[in-house]
Amino acid sequence: MALHTWKAWERWWGETLEEMGFGPTRRIPVTGRSSGDVPDLDNAILAPEVKAGKVLGPRIRKALEQADKAGEKTGRIPIVLVTNTSGTGMPAEHVVIIRLQHWERLRLALTEGGQ
């Protein structure tokens, strides 16, 4: 992915988070960011790491489709809950995946008590 493309996506996410009410969000330049302990975006609430490009595998894409269909049928918010097991003795890792428009709907439901 071209350098200007991922920078543009980081800026887009910053603007989107601001519009959603998460407060001022700005892109942090990459300089000296090799350890991964600095987020892509500076925000008072979130520590955003932005990934752009072909980053969703087929199993996750299928799960999103299934959640969307279930959400349409039930009128509820579609969400994918993933438990990743890496091997014997390794703790399971739990991840929540939700499409942006549904995340906004969830945020509004939690803050305003509506759907």
Blueprint (SSEs and pairs):
Elements: H1 3-19, E1 26-27, E2 41-42, H2 58-74, E3 80-84, E4 93-97, H3 100-112
Protein name: Restriction endonuclease
Organism: viral metagenome
Largest sheet: 2 strands, antiparallel
Shape: globular
Please estimate the helix content.
40-55%
**Quaternary structure:** single chain
| Spatial extent as radius of gyration | 16 Å
Query: What is the number of independent domains?
Result: 2
Structural category is: alpha+beta
Estimate the strand proportion: 5-15%
Main-sheet strand order equals: 1-2
Overall strand count: 4
Q: Let me know the average pLDDT.
A: 90
Rounded to the nearest angstrom, the distance between the terminal CA atoms is: 37 Å
Query: Helix and strand succession?
Result: HEEHEEH
Protein name: Restriction endonuclease
Organism: viral metagenome
